[in-house]
Amino acid sequence: SIITKNTFNPDHINMREGVAYTTKEDKHSHGIGLKRISKTVKKYDGLFQYHTSQTKSESCIFTAELLLYTE
What we know:
Blueprint: E1 2-7, E2 13-16, E3 19-22, H1 33-43, E4 47-54, E5 60-67
Antiparallel strand pairs: 1-5, 2-3, 4-5
């Protein structure tokens, strides 16, 4: 499994119904990575999820978790 965490600017991401959308103007160059990851993981019967959280120090954290099975 792969788990990655990173801080982010909450002004650059909009979560609606558990789905992340970019707020950047150039929508063709931003916000497509998560869709591609999700599609690829689904193709190979894996699991992919992501969520946001806020720490006590007020940092916003984006966490992505990916699991692919081996035969």
